[in-house]
Batch of 2 targets.
Target 1
Amino acid sequence: MEWANSILQGVLTGGLYALFAAGLSLIFGVMRLVNIAHGDLIVLAAYLALVVTQTLGVDPLTSLALVAPGMALIGYGLQRFLLNHTLGDDLLPPLLVTFGLSVIVQNGLLEVFTADSRRLQAGGLETAAWPVMPGLSVGALPALQFAVAVAVVGGLQLLFYKTAIGRAFRAVSDDAETAELVGLDNRHVFALAMALSLAIVAIAGVFLAVRANFDPSIGPARLIFGFEAVIIGGLGNLWGTLAGGIILGVAQAVGAKIDPGWQLLAGHIAFLAVLAFRPEGLFPRVRH
Amino acid sequence: MPPLLQIGGLSKRFGAVVVADAISLDVPAGQALGIIGPNGAGKTTLFAMIAGAVAPDAGRVVFDGADITALPPERRCRLGVARSFQIPRPFGGLSVFENLMVAAEFGRAEKSANPARDCVDILDQCGLADLANRRAGALTLLQRKRLELARALASKPKLLLLDEVAGGLTEDECVALVALVKSIHATGVAIVWIEHIVHALLSAVERLVALHAGSIIADGIPRDVIADARVAEIYMGIPADA
């Protein structure tokens, strides 16, 4: 039963990893941009939520009403005025620029908020749990986090395949030059994709901050988890990304169960195993 | 009424190669104009400069009374300039219907009340109705060429630039495609058509321009242009004194 419990907690944690990964996967899919600052932007969103909760006295989930649009706005501006200029045939310039951005965000947060670790209080949601059976219980927060991850992935899927802006995302992803010739303003479409990505980052950031302590330095590790979830699931497949997050979460939980020191290692080993035996990921998007 | 498209002194060189040497050309609304010329004459570059993919070194492009020389391609599309490529470039991961929807939703000056309805009508007109839900990347060459035309129509153009749409097709396919181009022209859309398959071109256009080394060497009714001694020499390889 202890094992079942570990696996269940791993599955639910996987929802958080899928939230880390969804925004990453989205912008890579639309404009082949690998955002090294993704993890630091998650932490930035957590600090924004901290400021909003402290200033307005609202709970962290309510703060999303401000933090998500705020991050979306930052994303739009970032893409429109900085990252669009780095896009081209070469993948290196956006990598370097977002790496620089990562350093700037980390040090900026350090300057403003110091290195003290913080936490968002969600009024008992963190500790609430439903017993399923003796030895097996589901925490309210992990359950909510998982449900939100499923909703985000499902929502993105709907957006991509059922709406005009989703068709625009897929069209510029297929052939950006031709997209311009049928009336799409690529710079605007790319900026909208980044705005959407950072709105999801805001959700991920708030859940991260309610679940555990955070400080300005933890961004890169979230980036790694996000990357691993994307690669395990298969590039360009959003449901695959959710599955990738779950596999990573379960691997970490099982590792931690064997020995607490093995938590991260087990996750990386699962990732490396997928890379070694199925480099295209477990659920790659079927093409041509 | 001023011409729909006015090109004035358009020049472009790539290194030492002159691909457009002060080209001036007017296309009235609703006209079907053919362009012929040997490879490297500058035909495709001329299209790229009209559609906005390539910036000219000098000269200007006026469309529907507005100077569009400095406008990006997506703005030109919304004003009514549509281009189809020699080698079709569908959005391979989208369905045929979705390819049209993108153009109908983003490529028009005024939003359509019902873009889906418009796209279904265009698919019918272009003989693609049965393939609406097929992934565009899985189409045959003829189907891709039809899709290229259909997607261009979905943005409701006033001017359609066709780049060798008949190339690579069998005789029957070619006849069917020419019929489609004619039916599009009959709706009042102006057409500028670059084509090497001259008999296909001549069956659809009312005016012919011959381009050579970035310059217009003949312009008039098709019969006269074809009979022109310089055109015969340069394009068909017949010596002028033969």
Target 2
Amino acid sequence: MAPTARPTVAPPLSPHLQVYRWTWTMLMSILNRATGAALYGGTLLVTIWLVALASGPKAYGAVAWFFGSWIGLLILFAYTWVLLNHMLGGLRHFIWDTGRGFERHERMALSRMSLIASVALTIVIWALALLLH
Amino acid sequence: MAETKSASIRTPRARVKGLGASGHGAEHFWMQRLTGAANLLLMIAFAVIVAKMWGRPYPEAVALVAQPVVAIVLLLTIVSATIHMRLGMQVIIEDYVHGTGLKFAALTANTFYAVAVAAACLYAIVRVGLGGLV
């Protein structure tokens, strides 16, 4: 038997995200992990802020200036949404932990609602902060 | 039922301990939920503190964090959040990092990072809380 030609198409690797049809539950599951990872790094911002406060007026002034700049405010705005999305994702999981909310329409609605609520709450919190400031 | 029991390779002692194959039962899962619930409450207070810090000159910022209630809320937030984030990142590493050596290194680095963040924040809060900065 003659040796067969090497296949011109690479054999498929084990499937990952790209082969699935996107659903709300899939999107929000990925976002919950991604926001968790972002918060893991974001905790450094809290550390910088607190250590600067303990270090003296010069260090604190620099950090306060940065967070008050447009890029600092943008980071804090994003941080707020990331935190709220992860928090609401956690609440969603608390509901699922009790064994409730697993019907198709329920789990899709819970996932959709947590995304909408995280965006809405972020806007409300920043509107309040800017109004009361 | 008696037949099912005799068919199990689990020792009576392991069954009494009830910790399963992992050897530590549901501890990780439970701690993640417990700190998650704590974070939920603490983050609301934390957000109010951050909002109140906004635009304060240094002496007033120090005075705010030095208030016992504020300092205690910050301490609790750091403890709960760093435990929670360490457990969360541990699962991410276990899911995606496969080489034994690399996984061990990543898990160790994860613990170092969480403890370092916690130590730095806790020290800073106590330093501000005990006074003498302004």
